[in-house]
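Researcher: I need the complex structure. Ligand is calcium ion. Inputs:
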Amino acid sequence: MQTPQDIRPEPAAPGDSGSRPLLITMHPSDNVAIVANDGGLAAGTLIEGTRPLVLRERVPQGHKVCLVAIAAGQPVRRYNVTIGFALQDIEAGRWVHERLLRMPDARGLDNLPIANAARAELPPLTGRTFEGYRNPDGSVGTRNILAITQTVQCVAGVTEFAVRRIKEELLPRYPHVDDVVALEHGYGCGVAIDAPEAIIPIRTLRHLSLNPNFGGEVMVVSLGCEKLQPERLLPEGSIPIRDDRQAEPLDVVCLQDEAHVGFMDMVQSIMRQAKMHLERLNARRRETVPASELVVGVQCGGSDAFSGVTANPAVGHCADLLVRAGATVMFSETTEVRDGIDQLTARAATPEVAQAMIREMAWYDAYLQRGSVDRSANTTPGNKKGGLSNIVEKAMGSIIKSGTAPISGVLAPGEKLSQRGLIYAATPASDFICGTLQLAAGMNLHIFTTGRGTPYGLAACPVVKVATRSDLARRWHDLMDINAGRIADGELSIEALGQEMFDYLLDVASGRKKTWAEQWKLHNALVLFNPAPIT
Ligand code: CA
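Model: Output:
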């Protein structure tokens, strides 16, 4: 397993990286390194060090330089892993871009190492707390939000209209409620609802309604004739009962109900029901809870070659701190971990966890195959422009977000957490789909790293965005919460930034700090993962 400790940026004087040529090597046996300097390095640049090197051509920032001559057919190594085979002889000092590489085949799912990795020493971290909202089901919210569940897309416009009025007319009267959020989605009708894989979007919607940031208050807006009937979405027993109350019937506003005369009548019904839930939510107060109540989803988007050097390793260190504090950390993005499956099965806490991971990978391989693609369809033009040649290189930088703890559980898409520790939540890597599935699993805080830059945000939970480069952090100073570029600049170690991130998470979780996405109310749509047919 590649650990953050193996990363050895060549030392630089603070603030000096703009002028002095700086290469970052991930492992002593690598034969390529990446250029750290803003703007890249020019042809003829002399790079001093134990192995002096002259660049034979211009190499952009984040892209790879060949450190020693590589013969055609030989492996190109980064993170101590073969990320490709040279398609021609490559001289030292040349730019190693994707056109010079053949991508290795995906590792088969047979004969994988099972739960045999050496265990990292992770002593418990005690005494850390945050201020959160305790929920009837034992979970803890970091925000106090009224969510309005919808059974079908048909009701989205009416719900949105009602939510606008609730925010304008009701919310100011309930100062302890942070927000009102409509859980809009494209599902509910026009779908093969009895197809076996329809279970994924249905349980995703069910579990989204029960996210810890919604305080156990569930209200539903339904059309009436849709396939996904309210009782199918939230069957009896799916909503935890509060200690102080009897079981209540599901709170549903049905637009086709004959009692509704006109649009405004429907809006009034939604507002009347919302008022009851707002009153209950408004009576809640934050209380001091242990850091173990955090449920942090980690994700990356708009990655570049720095993602796996700065931001993701720091997230990995932060993940270790969280796991040591007894919290839950979810990592996801199946196509971005597929090439590291052997590292992950080895890190599984038990053989059962390793088998569950293999099950999820096999399911996803088959899903991609049905669409005549494989995991290489993941990488984007922006990834490649940022220096990531292929999915193998991207995956090695992505897995580092999971830190070094043993993997204690696996969730299939849309499932809800039932244990703590480091969890592999199988999801597509698509930012919105991954975020939606992590929310359904029970995420109450999200860390999101980006190198190319994305203004990503979620309405249901705070999203802490981490820039991989100082250049991005400077330009997007009012969108990026944390600058991991300070690692490449030589200002801060990976461990120091991971610690800073951990402290920042506790502040955000407590409501003492707001993320930029919260400040500007930047929210991406909830996007369901639906591998089942549409009719
Ligand atoms: Ca992603």
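Model: Summary of the prediction. The pocket of calcium ion is lined by residues 299-301, 333, 429, 431, 434 (CB under 6 Å).
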